[in-house]
Amino acid sequence: MGRVQDKVVFITGAARGQGRAHALRLAGEGADIIAVDICEDIASNSYPLARQEDLAETAKLVEKLGRRIVTRKADVRDPAALRAAVAEGVAEFGRLDAVVAQAGISPLGPEQSAQAFLDAVTVDFNGVVHAVDAALPHLPDGGVIVATGSLAGLASATTDNPALGPGGLGYSFAKRTVASFVHDLATVLAPRRIRVNAVHPGNCNTDMLNSDAMYRAFRPDLTDPTREDALVSFPATSAMGNPYVEPEDVADAVLFLISDESRWVTGAQLRVDSGGYLRKRPQLPTF
Ligand SMILES: NC(=O)c1ccc[n+]([C@@H]2O[C@H](COP(=O)([O-])OP(=O)(O)OC[C@H]3O[C@@H](n4cnc5c(N)ncnc54)[C@H](O)[C@@H]3O)[C@@H](O)[C@H]2O)c1
């Protein structure tokens, strides 16, 4: 028996990065997956998003683990597309137990317009609401909702730095709002024992972090920094000296939150940030 044996989990942004890691970790523990991804770029986001082949690769890897997967190309800004994808997945698998709302963009750059602010908010926050909205009618009592926030939503002096442009502000705003949404939604759904939790990664070793805009954010002293240059500064957001966590580290947290091991855990803001929050928000010495 796996830790999430025969559960069906809907994951947004599952073509690569953390979304793919969640799909594989959950499938490895017995889950079937409904996976969506935009599979095309968003103009304000300077690094490319996933492609249809990436989503197909996630599907191949899940099936290699002996589990089933339904994939759909869908933009989390489009509630109807998400509802259709979930409905098709539920028709195939007969049930839905959990949703991981985690598709995201990070449209950083001082050259960006206000559109970058709106894109960050509509993908990184509205997209979470739309994923929950699509899943909720199918979730039984005892179902699970996990949303991905960020250290950037919990602490200031991260992407809210004006030098990172309106998209950075939008990213922080969206992630802060995800944390708040999770808190209040957990309260609303507790009577049905539907658990709602957030995971908040610090730097994570995916395409979002490994992008030119992010290298510039970490090395504002250089005009054209490389990954090697940025690696020196990545540990600034960690208390443990590591430059980043791996997608699989976040997937372990997501697996715990979807499994019955966390059956009385709801409203949690689970940081997978190498203590980055501790550096940014030291507690007042009240003890
Ligand atoms: N990488 C980091 O350092 C980091 C840190 C904290 C939080 N996060 C968050 O983790 C989550 C996963 O990001 P990642 O690190 O795996 O980056 P990633 O860029 O590798 O993956 C994001 C995925 O979401 C998809 N996506 C983007 N916009 C979409 C949309 N509108 N509709 C559907 N799919 C869309 C992309 O195509 C991609 O497959 C995001 O919410 C991100 O904000 C990342």
From TrEMBL:
Gene3D superfamilies for this protein: NAD(P)-binding Rossmann-like Domain
Coiled-coil residue spans: none
One Pfam match: adh_short_C2
Swiss-Prot/TrEMBL keywords: NAD, Oxidoreductase
Source organism, top-level taxon: Bacteria
Keyword NAD attributed: yes
SUPFAM superfamilies to which the protein is assigned, alphabetical: NAD(P)-binding Rossmann-fold domains
Similarity-based family: Belongs to the short-chain dehydrogenases/reductases (SDR) family.
Protein name: Mycofactocin-coupled SDR family oxidoreductase
Organism: Nocardia jiangxiensis
